[in-house]
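hey can u check if this looks right to u? its 389 residues, i copy pasted from the old doc so theres a chance i mangled smth
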Amino acid sequence: MITIGDTAVSLEDPVGTAILIAVGGLVVIVILLIMAVRAAARSARMTEPLVRQMGDLGQRVQGLSEGQQQLAGGLNHVSEAQASAQSHMLQLMEKRLTQVTENMTENLQGSARRTAQSLGELQQRLQAIDKAQDNITKLSGDVLSLQDILSNKQTRGAFGEIQLTDIVTKALPSDSYSLQHTLSNGKRADCLVHLPNPPGPICIDSKFPLEAYEAMRKAGSDRELSEAARFLRTSVKKHIKDIAEKYILDGETADGALMFLPSEAVYAELHANFPELVREGFAARVWIVSPTTCMATLNTMRAILKDARMREQAGAIRRELGLLFADVDRLGNRVENLDRHFHQAAKDISDIKISADKAGRRAKRLDNFDFEELTPEGEARIVPLPKDR
């Protein structure tokens, strides 16, 4: 038997046994509840750091979420900026491509124009070349004709006379020379220049030792060259002798004459390699001239003729100078008269200005009068006028 408080319970009694079992079970449950509460308390104390960690973890997760949102916004901004940059870049590329295309088009057009212009110029030059070729062909024919002319002595002489005539007509007045003039000895000079005394009229005759010169040019050996040089000396000496005998006449012509060589090459050859021929011409008073030196000599003769004519006209010049001085005197007198007229006109203008100033001052004084202040009836008011100055 078991006593619980004031109650005695017999173990043999089934009800008591059930009560004991129930009480024991209740006690066990209470003990278990107490143990569970303690375990729960211990678990709560143990889970507090975990809860705090979970809170921190939640805050971090929230921060990560916010960062993810910011990152998403940044990525969106970057994407938009990249898209804008790509769009701007495409626009720039399109603009640049358009500009490059326009430049290429303009350059191609300019190149086409320049090419067309170059082709036109090339065509013009080809035409000029064709024309020059035609001229060369014609000149070749003319050279052949010239060779035919120079191969004949008579035509060669005519060639020299024509060239001499052309030079003389260009250098001298038409009344200062005579072409193909016949002298008193019956000889006819190619040209006679009418110079005053001294030196007097001087003859010019054309000579052309072309055959001897051509022989020298074509000489292939020393022997041929020596023979050609001897031939040239003989020809030139003969020409000098003929001119000295035919065209230098005492009392009729000057004491000298000119031998005209219509070739600069022959003239240069004589002075370079045959100076003795030139000296022989000087000794015979026959001066050898080329087209160039003949022009210079004729210009000197022109100056002599001009000086002589001025001396002949000295009286007329003095008379004209006297008339000119009289005209200058009359001009001076008329200038003095005109100057007096100018002075008188200036004085008249000055007097007119003085009168105009006086009239202006009088008009100004009249304008300053006050006509609204009238005098009373019956009273006479005399307005004094200023005296004339």
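DSSP finds eight helices and seven strands in the chain.
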